[in-house]
Amino acid sequence: VSLFSLLIIVSLSQLVLAFCIFRLGFFFSVICVLFWLDYFAALSFYLSLITLILLWSVFSLALLALYLALFRFVSMHFGCQPAGLSSSAKSSQCVVGPPPINDFEIVTDMVGPCLRWQRV
């Protein structure tokens, strides 16, 4: 199991747990209002609100982990495109890491995991 898939699994499980806590706290605050327990109702409401904020942050982390996993998958399986050249005499390549210093010149900066460069 890769680190990204583990991060996605943990984030989604925390998302489900926070949603359940939010629903339980909201239900408890409604019951407290029905029985005129104002202090407990307010406390339960604020706890539910904090849980909702945590729910949103966990959801954002899960989306970020999903985006990173998707980016890694695409870059690993499809690579990156070589830099476009106007002249067909020059050849361009895309590699991971810096090109040899003497023979090549960097034409663009890092694009994902790849460095675009061309032969001079």
Keywords:
single chain; 120 residues; alpha+beta; 3-stranded antiparallel beta sheet
Description of the molecule:
The chain crosses the membrane at residues 12-37, 43-68. Keywords: Membrane, Transmembrane, Transmembrane helix. It is a single chain. With 120 residues, this protein is of the alpha+beta class. 61% of the residues lie in helices and 15% in strands. Helix 1 packs antiparallel against helix 2 (38-78).
Please give the largest β-sheet.
3 strands, antiparallel
Number of helices: 2
Helical/strand content category: alpha+beta
Overall morphology: rod-shaped
DSSP strand count: 3
Overall pLDDT level: 63
Strand percentage: 15-25%
Oligomeric category: single chain
Order of helices and strands: HHEEE
Give the end-to-end Cα distance, rounded to a whole number of Å. Answer: 43 Å
Number of domains: 2
Strand order of the largest sheet: 1-3-2
Q: Give the low-confidence spans.
A: 81-93, 103-110
The residue fraction in helices comes out at 55-70%
Transmembrane segments: 12-37, 43-68
Protein name: Transmembrane protein
Keywords: Membrane, Transmembrane, Transmembrane helix
Please outline the helices and strands.
Layout: H1 3-34, H2 38-78, E1 92-95, E2 104-111, E3 114-119
Antiparallel strand pairs: 1-3, 2-3
Short description:
Keywords: Membrane, Transmembrane, Transmembrane helix. This is Transmembrane protein. This protein is an alpha+beta fold and 120 residues long.
